[in-house]
Amino acid sequence: MSRLVINGYHRKNRINKNIYGHFTEHLGRCIYEGIYVGENSGIPNEKGMRKDVVSALREIRVPVLRWPGGNFADEYHWMDGIGTRSERRKTINTHWGGDVEDNSFGTHEFFELCRQIGCEPYINVNLGSGRVEEMQKWIEYMTFAGDSSLTRLRKKNGQEKPWKLKYLGIGNENWLCGGNMTAGYYADVYNQFQTYVRSYGEESVYKIACGPLDDDYEWTDVLMKKAANNLDAISLHYYTYPGVNIEGQKGESIKFGESEWYHTISQSLKMENLIRIHTGIMRRYDPKGRVDFIIDEWGNWYNPEPGTNPGHLFQQNTVRDAVTAAANLNIFNQYSDRISMANIAQAVNVLQSVLITEKDKVVKTPTYYVYDMFKYHQNAILLDSYLETEEIGPEADRIVNMNHSVSIGDDGKLNITIVNFSADTSYDIECEILGGKADEAEAFILHGAMNAHNTVQASDCVKKVQFYDYKMTERGIDFEIPPRSVLLIRL
Ligand code: AHR
């Protein structure tokens, strides 16, 4: 029997809902086909946006959406994506399969998408191959209310009022695809760019700098040293590549066994250490913790599905992905005093997507259901809690058997999310709530075989279902969590 103790007397910080953010990139079938099909499509749409996809994203309460990349952002020129669609420039998507980009989805379409989903826009501007002037003009075009040539152009293009834009990323992966810069050089260029980020709206623009890759602690150190006063957040990118000792291979999304199961989870759990160390470095330059930490690209990255365009990075999604998504979201909740946003890559049809589309059909992935179960943590207050754990897994990939987080919403309900990482063992948990008593519970679980996944032909193999294997007690609630599962209990 493991103990879970929830300290209702110790309310910590509010969990920023943006931790449950998503990312859309002009990559493969993410934007085109996955989200935007155009007004003349036979697929039901509103102003070109797929109704099925928008409604699924609304259901999980997507709070914020990052766009247009990724690598694509650092070669994106916003003027290509405004005006009459048929006259927009056709450009090459050099990063992703060399596709011809017809720019039919641009600034106006992105804001329309966010309006339909009901989320905040987060735009990543081009620092790698763009100019300061180009960025400055884009911000004016989007957010200035007065009468300038650029705002006249915006109005001519159909948008009378300025849009509200809070989140602005300045550059993407500038240590590699975004210009191969050193940390010092990027920090200097960042300082120059951010000078010209004018806030025309009521709220100031929240500036996000390109942060480190994985454990590049020097990048964080140099960036904070040179630019801490000029930024609101820095953003880490961390992907999990489960390929085990296979040269140049990232591993398969569906065909894997127990060793890859544990290896993927152990790699994924490294997120916690990365957060601790990077935010520790940030504290040296910002002892009060004014500068936030963001993870605006994360998730599992496998080999592309056989038979698909390798440049489109399309992969399937199994119970393994659900388990690692939940594990990371629990970590983000636990560190939500420092983390203000996270965006899993990418929302539709790419890496660890929540939705997969095939023509007029949409499939909810196991990862989708995790976001559905965890949505109650959005803007809730994190509670102090402790879960007794043990080590499991093969020698090379020892991991904890479970992770968890607990919050209390403004509705007074407790949200407990727990993941069982074991491939074969269930655990009995005795949960005690200090400073509170629960009379009834509602619980949902997602579990299945490691490789279980959903397809158009079989779209319901993995989903959240109601869970009844619990008993209310004097102290709280006792339950048994099965192997390979994600559990939500609401009290
Ligand atoms: O998510 C795919 C790519 O991964 C992004 O475009 C880039 O930022 C990262 O390398």
TrEMBL record:
<protein>
    <recommendedName>
        <fullName>non-reducing end alpha-L-arabinofuranosidase</fullName>
        <ecNumber>3.2.1.55</ecNumber>
    </recommendedName>
</protein>
<dbReference type="InterPro" id="IPR013780">
    <property type="entry name" value="Glyco_hydro_b"/>
</dbReference>
<comment type="subunit">
    <text>Homohexamer; trimer of dimers.</text>
</comment>
<keyword id="KW-0119">Carbohydrate metabolism</keyword>
<keyword id="KW-0378">Hydrolase</keyword>
<feature type="domain" description="Alpha-L-arabinofuranosidase C-terminal">
    <location>
        <begin position="296"/>
        <end position="485"/>
    </location>
</feature>
<dbReference type="Pfam" id="PF22848">
    <property type="entry name" value="ASD1_dom"/>
</dbReference>
<comment type="pathway">
    <text>Glycan metabolism.</text>
</comment>
<keyword id="KW-0326">Glycosidase</keyword>
<dbReference type="InterPro" id="IPR055235">
    <property type="entry name" value="ASD1_cat"/>
</dbReference>
<dbReference type="InterPro" id="IPR017853">
    <property type="entry name" value="GH"/>
</dbReference>
<comment type="similarity">
    <text>Belongs to the glycosyl hydrolase 51 family.</text>
</comment>
<dbReference type="InterPro" id="IPR010720">
    <property type="entry name" value="Alpha-L-AF_C"/>
</dbReference>
<dbReference type="Pfam" id="PF06964">
    <property type="entry name" value="Alpha-L-AF_C"/>
</dbReference>
